[in-house]
Amino acid sequence: MLSTSPPSRLLLRDLPVAARLTLAALLISVGIGYFSALVQLHFQHAQPGAWLPNGADAERMFSHTRASDRKLSKLEMLLDADENLPWNGGGQMSAAFTKKSSGWSKAIKSKAKQFVGRRGGAPGEAELAKAEKELRAQRNGEREAFLAWIRAGADKAEYEQDKFCLTPEVAKLPITPDFVGTDDKGPFLKVKTVLTERCVRCHAKDGEDAKATQFPLETYEQIKKYLTTDSGGAMSLSKLAQTTHVHLLGFAMLYGITGLILAFTSYPSWLRVPLAPLPLVAQVIDISLWWLARLDEPYGHLCARFIPITGMIVAGGLGLHILLSLWDLFGRAWKITLLVLIALAVAGGYGLKEKVIDPHLASEKASTTSAKE
Ligand code: HEC
User: Fold this and answer.
1) Distance in Å, CA 203 to ligand 1 centroid
2) Is the C-beta atom of 215 inside 6 A of ligand 1?
3) What does the pLDDT look like over 53-106, one tens digit per residue?
4) Distance (Å, rounded) from C-alpha 145 to C-alpha 164?
5) Does ligand 1 have an atom closer than 6 angstroms to the CB of 225?
C-alpha cells in the first residue's frame, strides 16, 4: 500500500544514542577549540588591554600604513612600531632590539654591575633600571640608524658591503659600539651585521623560532620583499596566502560539519536554512575583506573596518550551531543537564573574567603606560 504522507525528514533525534553522543562530544570539543582560537587571537593581534582585535587592529594588519605623506614598507612599519604591540608581522619587530634580543636580561645585569662599582655585591633595582635605560638608548640608536638605511632606499651595495654612512643627526645618537665603524667618509652603520645579529637568529631556514623560519631574512632578495611600499605595511602576500588557505580549508570543514548537524535538527526551516550555512558564507566575505583591505584609500581602510564585524558573525553563527544542536540532541533529562552545564559555564566564565581576565588585561595596559614613560 502506498502511503500518501510525505516522507518524514531525517532528524538527529532518530539517530542511535551512540551517534548522538558522538555528535554532542564533537560539538563541545569544537566549542572549546574555538574558544582557544579566540584566546590566541587576543594574544596575536589585540592591543594590550583589549579583549579582541578591533577595526583599528584590522587596519594595521591588513591595510597600508602611512606616515603623514607616504606609504610605509612592511619593514619600516614593524621596526617603527610600539614595542607593546603583538610580536608578529602585523604588530611589531622593534622589540628585536631590546626585550627579544638574545641575552637581553644578561646584558642589563652585566651593565648594572658596572654601576655597582666599589660597593660590590649584586646590583640593586636602581642600578638595574639605570642600566636598562642606557642599553635602551643604545639599542634605540641602532634601530633609528637601521631605519635611516631603509628610508634612504635600503641600497643593496651598502648592505653587501655592510656599510651605511650615517647622517650627522643619526651619528649623534648613542649606538651599540659593535655595530658602528668609521672610515674616511665618517661614521657608518654595519647594516648587514645588525640584521644578522638582531633578526637572522630567528629568520633563517634553521633559525631558532619555528614560525619565523618561514620568513627568512638571510639575503638581500629576501629582505627586499618587505621593503616595497606598494603593499604598504599590510600583511605580506605570502603570509596572507598562508592564512587564507589555513582558514578556508580548516575552518570550512568545521563550519560545514556544525552546519550539517544543525540542518538535521527539529527546528523550523526559517531558522535552519539561513543559519546552517551562515558561518561559511560570512567567512568567505571575511577573507575577501582581508584581500580587499589592500585596495588604495579610502576603500582599503573601509574594508578593514568591517573585518571584526564579519568575524563576529562567523563566531556568533558557530556559537548558535553548537548550542542549538546540543539542545536538540536528546530528551528532557539531557536538556536539564545542559541548562545546568550552561549555568555552570556562565558562572565559571564570570569568575574567570573577574579573577583572571580583567586583572590580566589591566596589567597589559599598565605595562604599556609604564613602558611609554
Ligand atoms: C625571537 C625571534 C625573532 C626575532 C629576533 C625577529 N623576529 Fe621577525 N618574526 C618572528 C615571528 C615569530 C614572526 C611571526 C611569524 C608568523 O606570522 O608566523 C615574525 C615576523 C616577521 C615579519 C613578517 C613576516 C611575514 O611575511 O608576515 C617580518 C618582516 C619580520 N619578522 C622582520 C624582522 C626583523 C627585521 C627583525 C630584526 C630587527 C626580526 N624580525 C627579528 C620572530 C622573530
Assistant:
1) 6
2) yes
3) 888 788 878 877 665 556 778 898 899 888 888 888 888 899 999 999 988 999
4) 9
5) no
